[in-house]
Structures are given as C-alpha cells and as structure tokens.
Structure prediction request, 228 residues.
Amino acid sequence: MSNTRPLEVLFEDNHLIVVNKKSGDIVQGDKTGDAPLSDYVKEYIKKKYGKPGDVFLGTVHRLDRPTSGIVIFARTSKALSRMNKLFADKKVQKTYWAVTEKEPQPSTGKLIHHLKKNEKQNKSYVTQNDGKMAELDYQCLAKSDNFFLVEVKPKTGRHHQIRVQLSQAGAIIKGDVKYGARRSNKDASIHLLARKVEFEHPVKKEPVCIVAPPPKDPIWDYFLAAVR
Prediction:
C-alpha cells in the first residue's frame, strides 16, 4: 500500500512538521486499521529529503477523527520530549473555531465542567464532581442566518472536551450527532477546526504562531469572510 498523498504542510523545519489535518484522517493508527496521518507525513519526509530506512516521527498531540486543523509532529526525539513538556506545562496556546447550531449563552464566557469518558461509547459525559475538570474560554465571533462561529480557547485537554462542553452550553457543533446535532454532515465531518497554535520553538526558542485555513465549504467560507 502506498502512503503517498498530498499534504497541506503549514510549518516545517529540521525539528517539527505541522500539517492541516482533513476531517476523517486519524492522527495515529487505531483499531480501524486505516492508514494514519503519521504514515503520510513520514512518506512525505522520506521522499522530500531522500531519507533511506525508517523516518523518525513523534506524534505530539491528537485531534478527533471528524475534526480538522493543526496537528504537530516532531522530527527528532529531542523536539518530541520538549514539545511534550510544553504541552504538559500548558505552554501551548490552542485556538479552535466551531460552527454551532445555536449561540452559547452568554455569547462570551468560560465553561467549567467535570467530564468522564465512556471508553465503550468513545464519548464523554458531564458529571457532578467525579470526572476530570475541563475548562475553556469562548466567544461568539460571527453569525449567519442559521449558524454561529464560536472561538474556543481550551485551558485543559480532555477527551472530546470542546464538543461536550459546547453541547452542554446549548451550542451544539454542526454535524456532531454524537453530542446532539440535528443531522450529520454528508462527509461525516464536524464543523470544528484546530485554527491556531502558539508556542516557543522547542529548540530555537523563538515564538511560533501557526494558523490553519478552514476546509472549503460554503459555511466555513462565509465565516472566514465575515471575520476578516
């Protein structure tokens, strides 16, 4: 099987490679057996730099399969361990965009819940106090006739955190039937984008800011134009 296909590379140097994940891609191999994004990135590096043998690639973090946007990979073990520490120390600022069916109330605020993951269902639920604390800041950036664009800055990184917390706030993400959307998107995507990431480069110690363009569809196109 060939693992070659076009990749949208957003940032690349000797230490890191950052790609814009399409909805439907899995970041790392799972029980489905589908080729993960990491395989395609390895193949890209191998071809571009003519590397023989195995290519080192460390997965720094993941995105849910139906979500699109920024995924960071490390090209060296040093960069991987340093990026892992940046994430653990909460020194990576992540910004997401979500298109929701209703406007969260109030339109700007903070959400704090306790979440518990159900492994069998691959779903997280809000609990009273026995789950893991999840926190995010959000603001509504724009609205169309039927939808709202909400910017989310998570403070924690829990399983399905943005999806379940926005749903709990009455602002269900378009296409996310798992968390209450009216209908699924035709391509099984959800309108959730890992839009921006900011951190200090693990080796060069310079500030890095990466922004991912949304997928091409009329709703994303509308909101991208609305906030320009």
Observations:
- Residues 9-227 form a domain with the Pseudouridine synthase fold (CATH 3.30.2350.10).
